[in-house]
Amino acid sequence: NAMFSWQRTAFHFQPERNWMNDPDGPLYHKGWYHLFYQYNPDSAVWGNITWGHAVSTDLIHWLYLPIAMVPDSWFDWNGVWTGSATILPDGQIVMLYTGDTDNYVQVQNLAYPANLSDPLLLDWVKYSGNPVLVPPTGIAPKDFRDPTTAWLGPDGKWRLTIGSKVNTTGISLVYTTTNFTDYELLDTVLHAVPGTGMWECVDFYPVSINGTKGLDTSAGGPGVKHVLKASLDNTKLDYYALGTYFAENDTWVPDDPEQDVGIGLRYDYGRYYASKTFYDPVKERRILWGWINETDTENDDLAKGWASVQTIPRTVLYDNNTGTNILQWPVEELESLRLNSTDFDGVVVEPGSVVELDIGSATQLDILAEFEIESLGLEETNEVNGLCGSGATDRSSFGPFGLLVIADETLSELTPIYFRLANSSDGSFETYFCADERRSSKASDVFKQVYGSSVPVLDGETLSMRILVDHSIVESFAQGGRRVITSRLYPTEAIYGAARLFLFNNATGVNVKATLKIWQLNYAFIHPFPLDQMH
Ligand code: FRU
Fold it and tell me: Residue 79 C-alpha to ligand 1 middle, in angstroms?
């Protein structure tokens, strides 16, 4: 379907056609990274959910494989829903997923590869004793889904957690098991946060306080914090918090109760949901996947024949400079797509001006940008009404300034990715990182929002961003990945060779000096695995 084909991405993962949602069971096995995903093989809207499957040797160049699991049993008749992989010490792979039963009850099922020696893991066997878990007493049949990767406790038992709710309190249940077929529910939950509603796609993993490496899911002890993430069904937003896991009673306590799960930090302040991490034993890193959902209408999705994209996988590390957040950064393999680059050194952007960055077509880019501000000595005003203001046109002394991406030459379509600073009463600055989609498309039936968050900037640090541009997707990282904003855009003019890149400064009281390095990025040429040629 050629319609809307300019929205197809060049290096983000998306199926050839039809609907995709959550990433499922990511894992590494015998030279291949595996990605499974919620997939409707029949239509570009949600339904008939199967597990799509793809493999890659570098997390960037993907090859589509045949569907791994379809709804074919009473225990998953209405959908093979989200799940996670656990790699046992002997190399066995345990896949736990939610089945929506013939009666629309959410149960947990066990599956495993038919042939572990197959690097492609083409065939999956569903355990004959499924389901292995049904909703426990006090949990409603539709509030019990998305089991995590399991971790090993000091008593030699595996644990896993499953999101749910009781009234409006979001909770995460904990089960122990030794064989993945029989489980015991603990009396206490891992964690609960009132008012946050149903927790979908819970993720729970350790991060090293002083290290630059990721940790396998069972790691613990001193020098380790744990991230707890929940995808809030009510708002469709992914929230995380840093805290301490107490293995002796399987509870987790947030570092800062005011920044608890569901009320504090988000992985991504843009269009992003149902994320999941896995541990990469090859490069000893933890990698985060997330689903970029659409903001157009279902009719548009049906017309274009596909819906949704996955983010570029991101490494996750604890930020020991702030101690309050994780750092997310595109996996280093993305850099293998870099083609020619252009440097811009100290470009001065005066208040109220726009400067074109002459790089030619601007649809597939990796941008590193640093900004210095020079006060013009004008009277300082602080008229910013919180966060991102009402967008990039809302001017104040110290912002907004940044880049206009997916813009056409006449600026009839553009998306500002920007900083804005506000001086607080104690004389210090608060920095906000924002994306303004309001003018991103001439299409009227797409949801266009101003997204953003405050971002920690420490003494002596320059303001920096990295932006990945891929036709209709923009992933923006501030201050080394302390905050991230993903944008799903629907340009009608700023497409292919017509897309341009600009600097802008809408501050009234400062000059901005920008230093940038910009790479054109190649296609990842994602295509079907040539299975026929192999046999
Ligand atoms: C999250 C989610 C999960 C569920 C799956 C169904 O997007 O609703 O909770 O398992 O999608 O496709």
Answer: 10
